Amino acid sequence: MGCFPRTLRFWTALLLVSWWCCVHAAPAVAGLAPSRTSGVTTIASVRDADLLSVRRALEHKVVAQKLKDYGVSPEQAELRLASLSDGELHQLASATRGLPTGGDGAGALISILIIILLVIVILKLLNKEVIVR
After folding, report:
1. pLDDT digits (tens, 9 = 90+) for 42-58
2. How far apart are CA 87 and CA 70, in angstroms?
3. Could you write out the DSSP letters of every residue in 6-72?
4. 8-12, 93-97, 105-109: which has the minimum mean pLDDT?
5. How far apart are CA 53 and CA 125, in angstroms?
6. Which of 16, 107, 120, 131 has its CA 20 to 30 A from that of 55?
7. Residue 26 and residue 18: Cα distance in Å, rounded?
8. Is the distance from CB of 44 to CB of 37 less than 8 angstroms?
C-alpha cells in the first residue's frame, strides 16, 4: 500500500463508493411477461389449426403450381377446404406436415455462404493460409 499516495487512495475509494451508491442503486428486476393473444391468429379449435396448416401448405409455390396444372383455382381450393369434414381436414393437415412451409432455399444457401466467408476471414486474421483447389 505504500506505492499509492494517501490522497489517491482516498479519491479512488470515494469514487467507487459514489459509483456503487448512484449507479447501482436500483437492482435489476426480472419476471415473466403475461401471455396475451395478438388478435392476428385466433386458433380456437383443432379444426382451425388444421385449416391454418393446410392453407400454409397451399401457399407454397410447388403446391400452387400443381393445383394450377390440374386446373384448380385458389378460390375453388378454398371452397373445397370449407366443405371438408373435420376428419378429412385433419387427414389433409397431417399429410401436409411433411411439406416445406415456404421459401425456395435461397436463405439457406446465403447462410451457408456467409458462414464459409466468416471461417475464411477468421483464418486470415489468424494468419492461416487458405488454399482452394
Report:
1. 666 888 888 888 888 88
2. 24
3. HHHHHHHHHHHHHHHHHTTSSPP---PPPP---SS----SHHHHHHHHHHHHHTSHHHHHHHHHTT-
4. 105-109
5. 47
6. 107
7. 14
8. no
